[in-house]
Amino acid sequence: MRISEKHSIAEVIKSLLPHLPRFAEEEGDHYSVNRCDLINALCQKQHLDRKLAENTVNWCEALLDTLAVLNIDALQRGEWCFVSFPAQLMALSVLTALSDSDSRYFEPNFWNTRDVDSSKLERQREVLQIIENRRNDRHLKQQAEPVRYIHVAWSVIKHEGKVLFFHREDKTRHEKNSGNYGLIGGRVNQNDFIGFNGDSQAKLRLLQSADRTSIQSALAKTLKRELLEEVGLEYEQHYLFRPWRALKPYRQVQGAKSNHALTDYFLEIFSIELTLEGFCYLQQKITEDEQLVWFTLDEMAQGQTRDGKTAFIEALYKDFDDNRERLKAALDDLDDSFKTNYLNCQDPAKYRIVLPGNESQPICAGAPGKESAIDLSLDQSSLSLLLGLAAHLREFSFVEKDASIMLNPYGWIEVEDDCELQTELVELAEAFKGSTEIVIENQKDRWFRLSISPDCVFFDDSYFRCSVDRKDMQSRKNKVRVTAMRREFGTRLGTVGEDKKDSKVPINVVKSLDNLNKGNRNDSLTDSVRDSYRKSQLHDCLAKLGMRGLLRQDAGAVKIYCEFVMN
Fold it and tell me: What is the per-residue pLDDT for 48?
């Protein structure tokens, strides 16, 4: 006889209630009931098949044992005994609710998630958080089974020792170790399966399973979707990707909003390789979107930026067994997502290019101190373009620039389509196409740059000036301030602003420079001045401003090559 043929499950449980053991509300008196007596009671009172009565009692016992209301020692003897009066109340509450078809612990629509306000979702979360944390924490073998499985694709966009993070969607998490910034990416959903061999039910069962292998094929679609949604990056146009690391399953009571339960997370991390277009787009996006934040590798290992932004990458820490230094080393070994790759890859210590101040002068190139004119003709228009590209490559500031361009890192400029400047830049790149010294890189007639290491590029001496305050020279200080200055100059891309850098130079060196500037050509003096100058801050300041050196040798004589004045 099945229950449905004569009795409802509610009626069967209700008939069991009078036969349960009891525990006194005061004094602690109590008694136990043998499991067999409970089964016999159901057989006699409800005329149930014995096997069915056994299953009913066993089911109720499993439920009450899960609630920890039954004495474990008594259970091992085949008896039911409540551990206390409150435990008895808990058991009666649950069994009475099960025996009453009108009884609910929550209102009928409590678990609805569509079109509800955040406070209701928060109440759902609170209930699940309590229940799931208790189920996990009280498991006798500390091996509670998860009830939720999430498959995730994360990306690593790395640039100059930093990794890009995105502010997480769910700002209401309460986990103690939960951060508010995560790696860009997200979880697999039903729409990420391509060519799935099965119906929607089979797909949903797979998605909510631990079958990591079968879901692997969906991760690429997930990654592309998340990078587009969170950052706006288009696959192939902006980036390519390759697998970096499949993390060990990460188990935690977690979940966004009210989707809160003991969860197994299966995370795959992919390394992103940006195209030039993707890199330039991302630089602009980061300046506009405050949800995108760079973490240095040190900050990533520590889990927090200096201004208090916290990283949610606990699964990554656990995969490295909480060895943060090992994680940092692995990230350090990972290639940057964008590489500069200058086409003229000369070593700045062995090679320089010096751009002239006007079109009548030649471009010089060669080893430091041995630069010589190269066979490239320049008109005023070409030189003006070249000076603008070189100034941006050196990261000089423009006080004004042409409205049709956007300045990007590593010397790249992006120019609007169908404008006059675009035509001029295309022609400039074509004019220098055969040159091995002046290489103008052109990508899709939209991005242009002078393609050489910035430290190789210098400017005409006429742009520079050094000055010293005479009052400092009359002081008793060992060092005096020397101000190096690069004047403002115009280019086709815009006006490059004036820049100044102060340096502290030994007063004897400044006096020697002043004497040399006045025409003193004593060999011992010039040798002493040259050696002392190269060791001073002034030499480095001028190099940063774009001058190849204050002192150089010409026809066997050492000369000062820019204006040097005492104010």
Answer: 83
pLDDT in tens, 149-198: 999 999 999 999 999 999 986 554 545 455 689 999 999 999 999 888 88
Locate 20 and state its tokens.
């349960």
Find where tokens 């066997």 sit.
Answer: 556
Contact present, 562 and 547 (Cβ < 8 Å): yes
Residues 6+ apart with CB under 8 A from 71: 32, 81, 82, 83
Task: Please tell me the distance from the alpha carbon of residue 200 to that of residue 296, in angstroms, as a whole number.
Answer: 43
Query: Which residues, 6+ apart, have CB-to-CB distance to 330 below 8 Å?
Result: 245, 320
Strands 557-560 and 551-554, bridge-based pairing: antiparallel
Tell me the one-letter amino acid at 401: K
In what order do the strands lie in the sheet containing 464-468?
Answer: 499-506, 479-486, 464-468, 563-566
pLDDT of 502 > 80? The answer is yes
Q: Give pTM, 2 decimals.
A: 0.85
Rounded Cα gap, residues 357 and 31, in angstroms:
104
Window from 90-104, 410-424, 478-492, 541-555 with minimum mean pLDDT = 541-555
State CA 270 to chain mean position distance: 12
What separation in angstroms does the CA of 237 have from each of 166, 186, 232, 274?
21, 21, 11, 9
Continuous segment of H or E residues that includes residue 504: strand 499-506
The pLDDT value given to residue 46: 76
| b/e per residue 292-311 (b: at least 16 CB within 10 A) | bbbbebebbbebebeeebbb
Distance CA 503, CA 540 (A): 9
Name residue, tokens 């060990």: 248
pLDDT (0 to 100) of residue 316: 97
Computed on alpha carbons and rounded to an integer, the radius of gyration of the chain in Å comes to 38
Identify whether the C-beta of residue 98 lies closer than 8 Å to the C-beta of residue 10.
Answer: yes
Residue 414 near residue 425, CB atoms below 8 Å: no
Q: Do residues 113 and 255 lie in contact, with contact meaning Cβ atoms separated by under 8 Å?
A: no
- Half-sphere exposure (CA, 13 Å, Cβ side) for 500? 7
Average pLDDT of the residues of the chain: 92
* C-beta separation of 172 from 259 below 8 A: no
Q: What is the pLDDT of residues 270-299, one digit of tens each?
A: 999 999 999 999 999 999 999 999 999 999
- Cα angle for residues 34, 38, 40 (degrees, 5° grid): 110
Give CA–CA dist 551/515, Å, rounded: 13
Residue 95 makes CB contacts below 8 A (sequence gap 6+) with: 13, 16, 17, 20, 60, 64
Q: Which residues contact 362 (CB under 8 A, 6 or more apart)?
A: 356, 373, 374, 376
